[in-house]
Amino acid sequence: MLVNRKELNPDASPEAAFGARLRSSREARGWTQDDLGGRIGYSGRHVSGVENGHKPPTRRFSTAVDLALGIEGTADTFEREWREIRHGVLLQGFPEYVGLEARAAEIKLFEVGVIPGPLQTREYAQALADSAVTRGVISREQADERVSFLMERQAALVRPVPPLVVAVLDESCIRRPIGGNDVMDAQLQRLVDFAAQPDAMLQIAPYSIGEHRPFNRAVNLLTLQDRSVFSYVESQTQGYLDRELTSVVPLVRAYHQLQAISLSQTASVDVIHELRKGTS
């Protein structure tokens, strides 16, 4: 007889549905939580936490469960369900944007305050994720998945015919210290290396342009092989992917205006070199 068995409500959330399915799959095989935990390299307490919705599932956990259940490579894996959960907590439009970014011919980025994701070093990204954990915004597992997701996003840009990547960074991006001197110095060097690539362009939008800066939030613009254009604009709580020319074209025009009043690539790299002297 089972005691203290918590009734699960799979309709409560995607995580709850994941946990309920995990329990059902486990019990169908006659396994206890400790049995499953031993097969996948986790404690029975951890399995219980995922089943009850107290611990978020991770990709490592999900793929281990698939292997233990013998369903890896099928159309209905726990890893696929985990991916759906992860995409569900991302800002609206972002998963689709990343898919388009991976096959874009041209990528234009603008960012305020932090280095854009495609140009971040792993250590810089980890420092940002660790800070979110400290502030209680995400769990440690979610932080690790956030960094892994970014690395996958960067890897998708390494192609036989790479996209042209244009990055205009507000001066705050390079002056805001993230992760300490060593991390920041390596991140600034990453920007210098990026600027040296034949398929890249880097410009700093200096503080001196003042009110003439056209954007106050992150803006991403994509041009695909068929010359269709998409925009993705993000705030703290919302993301919006747009493909309507009537709204995308003004953003493209504003981006060109921003480039015109920003520092040249040579001058931008010189500024970064000067900043590096202060981090070394």
Lay out the secondary structure.
Blueprint: H1 14-28, H2 33-40, H3 44-51, H4 59-69, H5 78-89, H6 94-101, E1 106-111, H7 122-134, H8 140-155, E2 164-170, H9 171-175, H10 181-195, E3 200-205, E4 218-223, E5 229-234, E6 239-242, H11 245-261, H12 265-279
Parallel strand pairs: 1-2, 2-3
Antiparallel strand pairs: 1-4, 4-5, 5-6
Please provide a written account of the structure.
The radius of gyration is 22 Å and the shape is elongated. The chain starts with 13 loop residues before the first helix and ends with a helix. The model has no long low-confidence stretch (mean pLDDT 90). The chain has 12 helices and 6 strands. A hairpin with a 5-residue loop joins strand 4 (218-223) and strand 5 (229-234). With 280 residues, the chain is α/β, with parallel strands linked by helices. Helices cover 51% and strands 12% of the residues. It folds into 2 domains: 14-88, 434 Repressor (Amino-terminal Domain) (Orthogonal Bundle), CATH 1.10.260; 91-116 and 158-279, Endonuclease Chain A (Endonuclease, Chain A, 2-Layer Sandwich), CATH 3.30.870.10. The protein has helices at residues 14-28, 33-40, 44-51, 59-69, 78-89, 94-101, 122-134, 140-155, 171-175, 181-195, 245-261, 265-279; strands at 106-111, 164-170, 200-205, 218-223, 229-234, 239-242. Strands 3-2-1-4-5-6 form a 6-stranded mixed sheet, with helices on both faces. Helix 1 (14-28) runs antiparallel to helix 5 (78-89) and helix 7 (122-134) packs antiparallel against helix 8.
